[in-house]
Design brief:
It contains four helices and seven strands. With 157 residues, the protein is of the alpha+beta class. Strand 6 and strand 7 form a beta hairpin.
Length: 157
């Protein structure tokens, strides 16, 4: 997918696009110039890659964004139409017990299959991290987890 490079500055109500460039190098030249002349109280200019026509190809193929919440063991906890978004995401929750994913798919079963494949891949590659239970006082203790069906030994120790 083709991209453009955007120079951004500010945050919240002060956020703005300073310029749009055809290459990362050109965007960096623009950002460097903005940052060389900025006052200490001003936000730095940053460079971001934005895809051109995001999701158009998938929409033309009859696909939609689907939301899937899947437990670490592969159990589908919920799923549905996520058409209010066009960006794919795969986010493991803070306790490492489930993932929330948004994927392009033709239907719910296709979405579940895609998320399950990503889940298996994350587990196999070790990118699905479990928090260290004993090192974080904000996490539930093993006693608090008893009876929940969650296996405390899944936490990294």
């Amino acid at each position: 997918m083709a991209s453009i490079w955007v120079v951004e500055k500010g945050s919240y109500s002060d956020y703005r696009v300073v310029g749009v460039c055809t290459s990362q190098a050109n965007a960096q030249i623009l950002a460097d110039k903005c940052n060389a002349t900025k006052a200490s109280y001003q936000d730095s200019a940053t460079v971001a890659e934005w895809p051109l026509d995001p999701g158009v190809e998938q929409i033309n193929q009859g696909m939609n964004i689907w939301f899937v919440r899947m437990a670490r063991d592969g159990t589908v906890e919920s799923h549905g139409d996520g058409s209010y978004d066009i960006e794919e995401r795969f986010d493991v929750n803070q306790f490492g017990t489930f993932v929330i994913a948004y994927v392009w798919a033709s239907d719910a079963n296709h979405a579940i299959k895609i998320v399950n494949e990503k889940r298996i891949q994350a587990l196999a590659l070790g990118t699905w991290k479990m928090p260290k239970l004993r090192d974080n006082p904000r996490l539930p203790t093993e006693a608090q987890l008893a009876g929940t069906g969650f296996i405390p030994s899944d936490y990294e120790k």
